[in-house]
């Protein structure tokens, strides 16, 4: 029978994309370092991608049998399990995106349910489920197995808040109407004002019944049943939004969630693609002279835009590292660069399919980051004191751009018009890398970095919130198990997941 001195045990399940897996992994390590037992679940597919990406790498950073082998050797109780996502390993999830997401929406929960049914028999008993907010079924699973339901949001709180109030946006005609209003939105609790063009792409869309929309509607219905919400953000950066959210449900800003200890030298890799080593190349470049470009792991760009950016880089004359995933346009369109491009830039440009981003942007040679504004990239760039050139493509990236450019003033827009042109890219990039105005951005980014650093300090907001969050899990676990104030109610002594 479980007793209330037992360690808390959480099952963690990220959405099966890089930008979600990364913060989940570092949160797992942090919770385990604070005495939690963690069972981390990846899909078979993600597990195989990570393992394959490492088989070609330096054996020093190879994870032996699973992602957390090293962490276990250092004494942390992190277990690892994999689950079927409903598709065979060879299925191209990037090319068949909508079909894959339909599977996540309708089929995945049955596989996960079966796995949780097995995991709850483990020792110490599982008390808590930490699931990505984009899943549509955590409330059902948490209820079935009597687990505390923690929803982990890997984007800014502002984005969460806007989805949370989709109905309000709809009622006011800013979303889901034939002809959405174009004026400023000033009625969302905790958001003073936001322009419709800064909403997430899904809230700007005219087709509002895509599979991703259906995921969002269901996920933001499910979230209302969460016991606890945690966000990879910082209280001081999004104070009003978080205060408003907290009036509805306990919401903790616990970010930025980074590898602990040495930021750049994580002891293992969680990349889905194998990482090219850029350090030699960077070592030969002057300080702050290299622009780093990456559009993250998920979004695609059109071939036309890529050609404009490529020509713009050619004309700009700046040094650059450009991460171009093989499926950046589409998995069946892998030959997208202009003829002779690589030859023409070979002394000052390096193109790689993937790299260890935090290591690259920490290098003193990096002076700017042209980014799609994925939230992890934004936080990492701030941490490294690197100003941003923003080129949002999809989802939260438009809203993140607003935070970066309009609110925090740590970056600029790549294009001011509808479409990106090579003239504008050349002009913006060379001015950004060589002009004096970047000094202001650098100063501002250092200020924001200080806010992040303070939040992670011993008395910082994220650290305090993290401890309150852990406490809250324990309180909720006791409630679920029918305990109050740590005393076992005779009615509920069933050995089911009691923690202290
Ligand atoms: O060559 C590369 C490129 C990226 N990264 C890492 O991959 C992650 C990418 O995350 P992010 O910048 O958030 O972009 P996406 O992969 O596109 O992330 C998805 O998930 C994010 C968090 O939910 C959202 O903000 C994004 O819009 C969504 O596309 C970061 O940790 C990077 O350090 C590498 O290690 N090597």
Automatic annotation (TrEMBL):
One Pfam family, short name: UDPGT
Entry-linked SUPFAM superfamilies: UDP-Glycosyltransferase/glycogen phosphorylase (SSF53756)
Keyword entries, A-Z: Glycosyltransferase, Transferase
GO molecular function per UniProt: hexosyltransferase activity
The enzyme's E.C. designation: 2.4.1.-
Signal sequence, start to end: none
InterPro entries xrefs: UDP_glucos_trans, UDP_glycos_trans_CS
Family recorded in the similarity comment: Belongs to the UDP-glycosyltransferase family.
Name of this chain's protein: Glycosyltransferase
């Amino acid at each position: 029978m479980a007793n209330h001195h037992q360690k808390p045990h959480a099952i963690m399940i990220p959405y099966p994309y890089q930008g979600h897996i990364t913060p989940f992994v570092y949160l797992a390590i942090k919770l385990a370092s604070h005495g939690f037992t963690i069972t981390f679940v990846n899909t078979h597919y993600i597990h195989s991608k990570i393992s394959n990406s490492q088989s070609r790498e330096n054996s020093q950073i190879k994870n032996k049998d699973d992602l957390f082998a090293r962490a276990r050797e250092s004494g942390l109780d992190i277990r690892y399990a994999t689950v079927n996502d409903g598709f065979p390993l060879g299925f191209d999830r990037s090319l068949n995106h909508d079909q894959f997401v339909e599977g996540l929406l309708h089929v995945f929960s049955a596989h996960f349910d079966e796995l949780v049914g097995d995991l709850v028999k483990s020792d110490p008993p599982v008390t808590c489920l930490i699931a990505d907010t984009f899943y549509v079924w955590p409330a059902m699973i948490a209820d079935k197995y009597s687990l505390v339901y923690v929803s982990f949001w890997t984007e800014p709180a502002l984005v969460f808040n806007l989805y949370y109030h989709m109905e309000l946006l709809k009622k006011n005609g800013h979303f889901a109407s034939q002809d959405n209003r174009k004026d400023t939105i000033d009625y969302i609790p905790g958001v003073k004002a936001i322009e419709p063009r800064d909403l997430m792409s899904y809230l700007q869309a005219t087709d509002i019944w895509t599979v991703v929309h259906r995921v969002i509607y269901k996920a933001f219905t499910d979230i209302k049943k969460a016991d606890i919400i945690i966000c990879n953000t910082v209280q001081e950066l999004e104070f009003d939004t978080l205060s408003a959210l907290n009036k509805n449900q306990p919401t903790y800003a616990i970010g930025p969630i980074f590898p602990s200890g040495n930021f750049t030298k994580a002891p293992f890799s969680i990349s889905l693609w194998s990482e090219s080593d850029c350090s030699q190349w960077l070592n030969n470049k002057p300080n702050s002279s290299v622009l780093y470009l990456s559009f993250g792991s998920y979004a695609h760009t059109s071939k036309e835009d890529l050609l404009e950016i490529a020509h713009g880089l050619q004309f700009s004359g700046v040094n650059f590292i450009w991460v171009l995933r093989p499926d950046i346009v589409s998995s069946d369109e892998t030959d997208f660069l202009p003829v002779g491009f690589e030859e023409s830039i070979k002394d000052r440009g390096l193109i790689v399919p993937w790299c260890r981003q935090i290591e690259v942007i920490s290098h003193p040679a990096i002076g700017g980051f042209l980014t799609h504004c994925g939230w992890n990239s934004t936080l990492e760039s701030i941490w490294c004191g690197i100003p941003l050139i923003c080129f949002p493509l999809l989802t939260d990236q438009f809203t993140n751009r607003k935070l970066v450019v309009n609110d925090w003033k740590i970056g600029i827009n790549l294009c001011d018009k509808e479409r990106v042109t090579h003239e504008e890219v050349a002009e913006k990039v060379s001015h950004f890398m060589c002009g004096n105005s970047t000094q202001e951005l650098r100063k501002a980014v250092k200020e924001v970095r200080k806010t992040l650093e303070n939040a992670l300090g011993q008395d910082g907001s994220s650290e305090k919130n993290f401890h309150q969050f852990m406490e809250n899990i324990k309180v909720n676990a006791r409630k679920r198990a029918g305990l109050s104030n740590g005393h076992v109610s005779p009615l509920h002594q069933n050995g089911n997941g009691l923690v202290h």
